[in-house]
Design goal:
By secondary structure, the protein is α/β, with parallel strands linked by helices. Helix content is 57%, strand content 9%.
């Protein structure tokens, strides 16, 4: 290989060495600047500490001289803080809100909850009577308003609020809903238990599937004693299969097998015995008026 072929390699090596040396030089300069900055910062901190210690020492000396009566005033102890800052009314309000934000948040939450409870209490409908619907019958639930409208013709203003209103409580009781896994089954079982512990619904519409989860002989009145001449009565049941109940209701689908009406025995539980007796009297009065129509 001749000399001309070797020359480019030498130039390349020289350029690489120069670049490395330049980089090292720049790195060294950066390190020196950083050390100088740190030294200046440490010196400033040292001077600040020294100044603070000197001021404390002078204040201590002036304080001793004040106690000894050598001097009567000291600029180092009683410093003039300048005129008091005058805040506008909006600045004062903003400052108050800033420092009270947590308490305001808690108070706002309490006010909202109270407002909701009051609104719910004021607007809640309080029917004169409620009927419990125990059947996995979606159409029955969808058309329950028609049932209420029909029953209101034979109800009275038992609660004294100046209007006649009938409501329903629908619980889809069947093997599918009461024995399925998950939270729905627990919710339906709990709702059924609560309703039979309260005197809210003394009149019950049920079917064979839902009666399997009840103890009817212990829960319902013997209707044969109340309506001995009614051909649809069998013990505690008022059988609806061969009656005009569904058409009077306006139900667009047939009732489930074994559908019947039952009247609960008034018992003290979540309500007092007196409240249970009053609810029973209203339910019986309504049943007395619809039995002849069937």
């Amino acid at each position: 290989m001749n000399e001309e072929e070797k020359k480019p390699r030498k130039d390349t090596a020289s350029a690489y060495r120069n670049a490395m040396e330049m980089e090292a030089k720049l790195r060294r300069e950066e390190e020196l600047r950083e050390r100088a900055r740190q030294a200046a910062e440490e010196e400033a901190n040292y001077q600040a500490r020294e100044e603070y210690a000197r001021e404390l020492a002078e204040e201590k000396v002036d304080l001793i001289r004040l106690k000894q009566g050598v001097i009567t005033d000291s600029d180092k102890i009683f410093r003039d803080e300048g005129p008091a800052i005058q805040y506008t009314i909006w600045q004062k309000i903003g400052n108050w809100f800033y420092h009270s934000k947590w308490w305001l948040g808690i108070a706002s939450f309490i006010v909202l909850v109270a407002a909701f409870l009051i609104y719910d209490y004021v607007t809640r409908e309080d029917p004169d009577l409620r009927m419990m619907l125990l059947s996995e019958h979606p159409t029955m639930y969808a058309e329950s308003d028609q049932l209420c409208t029909w029953l209101e013709q034979y109800a009275e203003d038992w609660n004294g609020d100046g209007k006649i209103s009938v409501g329903t409580v629908y619980i889809p009781v069947s093997k599918d809903t009461m024995e399925m896994s998950g939270n729905y089954s627990a919710a339906y079982n709990s709702q059924l238990l609560v309703q039979f512990q309260s005197a809210t619904c003394m009149l019950v519409l049920a079917d064979d599937a839902s009666i399997a989860y009840l103890q009817p002989e212990d829960m319902f009145v013997n209707l044969e004693q109340l309506y001995p001449d009614c051909p649809y009565v069998n013990g505690w049941r008022l059988n609806l299969t061969d009656t005009k109940f569904a058409s009077l209701w306006g139900l667009t689908e047939p009732l489930k097998d074994g559908s019947c009406l039952a009247l609960r025995i008034p018992q003290e539980a979540m309500n007092s015995q007196e409240e249970a007796d009053e609810a029973y009297a209203c339910a019986k009065a309504l049943l007395d008026r619809i039995v002849p129509l069937l």
